[in-house]
Structure formats: C-alpha cells, structure tokens
Design brief:
The structure holds two protein chains of two kinds. Chain A is of the alpha+beta class. Chain A contains 13 helices and 14 strands. Classes of the chains: A alpha+beta, B alpha/beta.
Chain lengths: 403, 253
C-alpha cells in the first residue's frame, strides 16, 4: 500500500511544480537517452560491419607483393602460374580461389563507347565476394574450359550501354573481340568493404585480361584470393604458402617479398577498435548519468529543506522515520524512472534517425531498454538516499517550528 | 486519561540552559475540556508538545491512558500521534498542494487503511465539521475558518482518545474563532476529551477547567461551573453581513 500511496504523492508533488520536476528529470533524460542511443547505434554499426565482413567470410586470405620490401618505383616480383598451381593443388580445404586483373578498357556497343574498368576474374570471384546476379548468371567453369568470351556487368554500365533493354545475350565489343553478356549483377550498395569494383565495372574471365596485359609474355598475377572451409585449414595454408614463397623468392632487405593477409585479422582489428570506442562512449554516458544523479540529489536536498514544515506535519499526524524515508525515496526513484523513460524514447528516436541516415539496420534489443530503466532506478536509489535519510531524521518539534 | 508526574524539560540554547518546565504534575480525566493558559514563555507550548507526544521530557513520567510513554521510541510515539492523539495547530498546518479530503485522509494513510475506507472516514469527518461540500477544494481556496475546520476534521478522523489544540483561534478573527470554539464544544458534548492552549481568557472561559502556567510551573487549576456557550454568543455577536446596523441602533433607541 505504501508504495502506491507514495507514487500518488509523488505525482501530486510533480503536478504542483511541473517546471522544476521537468528540469530535474532532464538531467537523467539526457544521460539515459544518450546511453541508449549510443548502444543501439553501436550495436547496429557492429552488426553491419560484422555482416559485411561475414559476407566475405573470416576464412578468406589473399596473397600479394609486400610493399614494405620495395622502394618507390622499384619493379616488384609477382606471382607466377606455377605459384598459383601450387596453391590450387597443395592447400587442403581450399573452397574458392580467384585472381583479379584489372585495367581501364574502351568498350563499345552499337556506336556507344565508354572507358570502363574491366576486371579479369575467375568464376569463384562471385562466390568470394558474394556478388549476386539480378539477371542471368555468373561465370561457370565451363565458360573457362570452352574459352567462351563472356562477361558479367554491373547495373550502371548496363544502363549506359543498353538503356532499359535486357542486356543478357547482347554482345559488347572490347579488347578487339565481342563478349556476350551472361549476367547482370545486383546493385552494389555502398559499404565498409569493397572488392574494388563499382556499379560500372565489367567482369570477364581472367585469361583474356591476362592476354591483354602480358601479350605473349609469361602471365603473372598481382593478387590471389583463397577461401577455405575452416580456420584451422586457413592457418595451415598460411604456413605452407609462407614457406613456399620464402623458399622460392627469399627476402629483400630483410622483408618477405610477398604478404599474406587474413580477413580474420581485419575483423579482429575492427572489433577491437569498436570495443575501445564503445568503452569510451560508455564512460562518457556514465559520467553524464552521474552528473544527472548529482542533479537529482541536489534538487532533492533543496526539496527536503523546502518541505521541512510538511515533514513536520506528516510526523505530527503519525508518520514515522521510515514513512518519510520511503516517501522521499519513492519520489527520487519515480522522478528518475520518468526521466529515464522519456530518455529511452528520446534515445531510441535518435538511434532510429541515425540508422536511417547512415543506412544501417536499426537493431532494437529490449534488453537495452530494460538496462537503461534499471540504471535510472539505481541512480534514483543511490542519489536519493541521502536526502531521504536527512528528511527522515528530522524531529517533528523542530520541523514544525520552521515558518 | 493523562497523568504527568514531575515533568521537566530543559533546553540548551548555545551556552545557556533554559528550564522550560520545572516540575509539572497534572491529571486530566476522560471527557474533560481543559484549557491551559499562560503568557509567552510560560512553557505552555513546550507542555503541549510533550503531552502531544511531539517531544520527550527531560525528566519525569507521562502516563497516557495508563501507559508510561515518556520512554517510548520514535516509532511508538509516531504510532501514538497517529492513533491516540489528534492535533490542531494555530497555523492550521494543512498540506497546501492537496485537497481538503486528502488532507483529512493523511493520518489514515499512515494508519495503513485502504483507499476506499480512507475516503469514507475522511468524508464523514468533514461532515462533522460541516465542510463536506468543500472536500475537493485545496487549502488556498478556503477561508481561515474553513481551513481550521479541515484541520479539526483531520484531528478527528482516526478517532483519537484526546484532541489537542494549540491556540486554535490565534490566526482567526473573533467571530470565526468563536465558531471554531463552538465546534470544539460540540465535540466535547459528543464525548471528546479536549486539551486546549490559549492566552486569551475569553476563549478559556468556554472550557470546563483552566490550568494556569507561569515560568514552567502550574500556579492555578480551577473548575468552571458555567462555561460560556459559543453557539449562543455567535447569535449575539454582530455580523455585518446579516445585521442591519441602522436597525440595531433604532431598536436600541
């Protein structure tokens, strides 16, 4: 009973001094609200990044020349066919593999010509980078085996060359030959990670690009991507590749000539950075909460002093210390909960707005709301107890004497 | 009902010790209407605070309904103030932000009653003082006399054994004051035990017994065989709203 009555009395107090109550709650508002907003935005952000990185898979690695070994302008040693052969044959658990060779090429279709970034890739490329086709298909091993001149194009270049008509089956002229369009990819959304292509890229089998780049000379590669089926196979593969390349190419100026990068490392780095940022933000939000709490305590102390007479009256009609303590505690906690509730609504609103602007997925977890409300209650408890205690310790005689 | 044995109360004011009460011996029986009179500084307020359980004596014993309450803890004293005692103050002491009804309900809140019961009892108490039609008004919407009546209703609502009134008419004009005394007399006729403090002889003569306090000691204790009747006086005292001044003068002439 006492609690219901205490809450009722708190609302009577709030109603009689709306502005002051509002200002008091504002302090807690901002603290809780920002805490919630940041948590939600942070969660959405992390999930977006994890999602993107997850798309490419943490079992992805890639090999390329080590920049640190060379000085500016120096000729770099590149991967040869025999190296790629070794990778393909002696690495267990290898699921997808691809190279990337790209150049700016002039392409033509029925009089329309453009300079386009053309990527020479293997069929697995589309799986590695989770590129979905909207129409038609990606490359299949048969295309390579049968030396088909096929291409897959992105939406913007499709629109430029073909307008609204279906690009599938049409032929684009480039590198002195005609390439049949077999697939149109989905639109590439702007994200954190990229394979280097954009919505105007055209993909062709790597062999043709290699021919363009190397002419009749030995074909070499700048990069080779590999995805494995398990993390243990990834680690195993890295060891083997490392040994092989060191044996074959040795060191330059103390550095390996080739470097092997793991997607997993990047994931870990990003995660660590996000953790630090989250911690930092949590600290800031906590500080603002403490400030809000101090505000509550301050106001409650003033309130208690202001209502000395009232406390005396209540004691004169039979309230004991505990009644007074409970009354002011309920007041503090209710103010904090109300403020916190508004703060949560405010914070969720801000978070939703931020996510819609940044085009992240708005992720709401009810736990965050409960946590925020729990924190509000705790603050009311902690910062309300001293003023409530002071109030309860008053002697009725003295309290009634106050004007 | 009340027995005070050698009650003493000493205050420390800085370096000085003030003996407010220097040995009070007093007995008040059930259904008495007693007035405690004294000048400023006589110790009457201090005495009221002690027998109203708002304060504790420094020495001596206080028996309330046969029970020694002078040594009780704060929580027990609070319970006595709630159940056994009804207090009416000079400055009304109503909570300003809530309605008259809620004000009268207050002791019942601390007595632990449920809302419906409280509401009914509070309403009944307001009826006894004739203010049931003002139940939803806040104190600042009531006149002085009405506020004091609400305070009396609050003092009655828990059916106390004793009603204490500390200068209840001090902040009221003479006519309104009389109407308040009339209410106390009505309650007394209905069986209440009342102890009132006042410094006005006019008011004190409405009681059945006057106890005179001077310098912390009782110097007089007299019965009044024929107390004044406030109701009767009210009908005789001029009320400019109702009486035509000219008519009164012409009657005289």
């Amino acid at each position: 009973m006492k609690i219901a009555e205490g809450i009722r009395q708190t609302f009577e107090v709030i109603a009689s001094n709306k502005i002051r109550s509002f200002l008091t709650m504002l302090g807690i508002n901002f603290g809780v609200g920002s805490l919630i907003a940041i948590s939600i935005v942070g969660l959405s952000f992390r999930t977006s990044i994890s999602g993107e990185m997850g798309k490419f898979g943490s079992n992805l690695i890639w090999v390329r020349p080590n920049r640190d070994a060379y000085v500016r302008g120096e000729h770099r040693v590149l991967l040869r066919e025999s190296d790629v052969d070794f990778f393909n044959r002696y690495l267990p658990g290898l699921v997808y593999k691809s190279t990337i060779l790209n150049r700016w090429v002039k392409v033509r279709y029925h009089g329309k010509g453009e300079d386009v970034s053309v990527f020479g890739v293997s069929p697995d490329y589309f799986s590695i980078f989770a590129i979905k086709v909207a129409k038609g298909r990606a490359f299949v091993p048969e295309d390579i085996r049968l030396h088909r001149k096929v291409c897959v194009i992105r939406p913007d270049i499709a629109e430029d060359l073909f307008g609204d008509t279906d690009p599938i089956g049409k032929q684009i002229s480039m590198l002195g030959h005609d390439y049949t369009v077999v697939g149109l990819t989905e639109r590439l959304e702007r994200g954190f990670l990229s394979d280097g292509s954009d919505n105007s890229t055209i993909f062709i089998p790597s062999s043709y690009m290699a021919r363009l780049i190397w002419g009749g000379r030995e074909i070499k590669y700048w990069i080779y991507l590999m995805r494995f089926d398990s993390m243990s196979n990834v680690d195993n593969a890295i060891d083997r590749i490392d040994n092989y390349l060191i044996n074959r190419y040795g060191y330059l100026r103390g550095e390996k000539r080739f470097r092997i990068d793991k997607m997993d490392s990047y994931i870990k780095i990003v995660d660590r950075v996000l953790n630090v940022i989250s911690m930092l933000i949590l600290v800031i939000a906590s500080i603002s909460l403490v400030v809000g709490g101090l505000g509550i305590m301050n106001i409650m102390l003033v309130t208690v002093t202001e209502r000395t007479r009232e406390i005396g009256i209540r004691m004169a009609v039979g309230a004991n210390s505990r009644d007074i303590l409970v009354q002011f505690m309920i007041e503090a906690i209710t103010l904090c909960l109300l403020g916190g509730g508004v703060g949560v609504v405010f914070g969720v609103g801000i978070a939703a707005l931020a996510c819609s602007i940044l085009k992240w997925n708005f992720l709401m977890n009810i736990l965050y709301v409960l946590f925020a409300l729990g924190i509000s209650t705790l603050i009311g408890l902690v910062f309300g107890i001293y003023p409530a205690y002071k109030a309860s310790k008053m002697m009725p005689v003295d309290a009634l004497r106050i004007e | 009902m009340i027995r005070l044995e050698n009650i003493k109360k000493t205050y420390k004011m800085g370096m000085v010790e003030v003996e407010a009460l220097r040995g009070i011996n007093l007995e008040v029986r059930e259904h008495e209407f007693v007035c405690i009179m004294g000048a400023s500084g006589s110790g009457k307020s201090t005495l009221m605070n002690i027998i109203g359980c708002l304060d504790r004596p420094t020495e001596g014993r206080y028996f309330l309904e046969g029970r020694d309450v002078s040594g009780l803890g704060d929580t027990e004293l609070a319970r006595l103030r709630n159940k056994k005692i009804g207090f009416v103050f000079q400055t009304f002491n109503l909570l300003p932000r809530i309605t008259a009804l809620r004000n009268v309900e207050l002791p019942l809140v601390y007595a632990g009653l449920r809302e419906r019961e409280r509401r009914q009892l509070a309403f009944d108490a307001l009826k006894r003082v004739g203010l049931e039609h003002r139940a939803k008004h806040k104190p600042n919407e009531l006149s002085g006399g009405q506020r004091q009546r609400v305070a009396i209703a609050r003092a009655l609502v828990n059916n106390p054994s004793i009603i204490f009134a500390d200068e209840p008419t001090g902040n009221l004009d003479s006519r309104t004051g009389l109407s308040i005394i009339a209410i106390f007399q009505k309650l007394h006729r209905e069986g209440a035990t009342i102890i009132m403090v006042t410094h006005e002889m006019d008011i004190a003569l409405h009681a059945g017994r006057i106890v005179y306090l001077k310098d912390g000691l009782i110097t007089g204790d007299e019965r009044i065989s024929k107390p004044k009747d406030a109701e009767e006086e009210l009908s005789r005292v001029a009320d400019l709203d109702n009486d035509a001044l000219a008519e009164a003068i012409s009657k005289h002439e």
